Amino acid sequence: MYQYRDIDRDFVRQRVEQFRDQVRRRLDGDLSEDEFKPLRLMNGVYLQLHAYMLRVAIPYGTLSSDQMRRLAHIARRYDKGFGHFTTRQNVQFNWPKLIDIPDILGELADVDMHAIQTSGNCIRNVTADHFAGVAADEVDDPRIYGEIIRQWSTLHPEFTFLPRKFKIAVTGSPADRAATRFHDIGLILRKGGESGDRIGFEVVVGGGQGRTPMVAKTIRDFVPEQDMLSYLEAILRVYNMLGRRDNKYKARIKILLHETGVEKFTQLVEDEWRHIKDGPLVLPVDTVAAIRADFALPPYQDAAAASDGFEPARVANPDFDLWVTRNVHAHKQPGYAIATVSLKPVGGIPGDATAEQMDAVADLADRFSLGEIRVSHEQNLVFAHVRRADLFALWQALQAIGLATANEGLVSDIIACPGLDYCALANARSIPVSQRISSLFDDMRKQHDIGELKIKISGCINACGHHHVGHIGILGVDRRGTENYQITLGGDAGPDANIGTIIGPGFDDDGVVAAVKTLIHRYLDIRDDGERFIDTFRRAGVRPFKEAVYGSA
Amino acid sequence: MSVSPVYQVMTANRLTDGLAVYCRSDGSWSPDIALAAGAHDDAGREKLHLHGQQSAEDHHVVDPYFIDAVIADGLFEPVRLRERIRASGPTVALAALPSQAYAVGD
Question: B98, CA 20 to 30 Å: which among A6, A27, A268, A426?
Answer without folding.
Answer: A426
